[in-house]
Amino acid sequence: MNFxxxxxxxxxxxxxxxxxxxxxxxxxxxxxxxxxxxxxxxxDLITWVYxxxxxxxxxxxxEEEHYAYDEVVVMDVDVNSFDHAERLSDIMHRSxxxxxxxxxxxxxxxxxxxxxxxxxxSDDSAATIHKLWxxxxxxxxNLSETKQxxxxxxxxxxxxxxxxxxxxxxxxxxFYAYDSSKVTGSFTMLSEQEQKQQRRQALHDYxxxxxxxTELKTSLKKEKAFxxxxxxxVEIKALEKQLNQVSKKL
Length: 250
Description:
Layout: H1 5-8, E1 15-20, H2 23-28, H3 33-42, E2 43-52, H4 54-57, E3 62-63, E4 68-69, E5 72-79, H5 85-95, E6 100-106, E7 109-120, E8 123-134, E9 138-139, H6 145-153, H7 164-184, H8 193-222, H9 226-247
Parallel strand pairs: 5-6
Antiparallel strand pairs: 1-2, 2-5, 3-4, 6-7, 7-8, 7-9
Helix pairs in contact: 6-7, 7-8, 8-9
């Protein structure tokens, strides 16, 4: 189970290595029949690998209006399929009231997930996820330079140590940078908060434009009227121009 834990290099003092039973998610989350099916079929074993607490990681806790960063959890999910990793990660992030780093793993292949979320202080089960990541599958023996750079950035020592929120958001920033690299072709971390916010907005705009273009192209294929096809083509070209402009902000 070395990969990618050898890269994360989390202090041994934080090692918990405790099995988590699937029934915990059944009891704490309203799962559909399909959700339960995927949990049963896709997941072989769930392990609470690391628990980053102030006294173990030597990083102070952080409390804000909507959420307390008392602990950061690294969870290993041994799977036989990555097909539903995004949905499964969504369920897990909502079920566990801590900042969570999930590693879906099958032999030498992994997919990673983090989430920016908030909890209602009066109801720990009411999680609101502002942004969820579930990466594509990484092959240990076939990593691009971009993926290598991304994984390297996830190392414990490269995260801000001011408090646990800053630490976890260091991971979130790396995921934003990885998202950007899929467009730009290069992995680049940003240091200024204003630049990070601009990148996040650009990523949001980029995804939105991509979706609009995809929907218009689908409509174009179905459209039979020549004049309407012309209008759709003009609209697609305009959006593609905007997409190109937004990509330069990444």
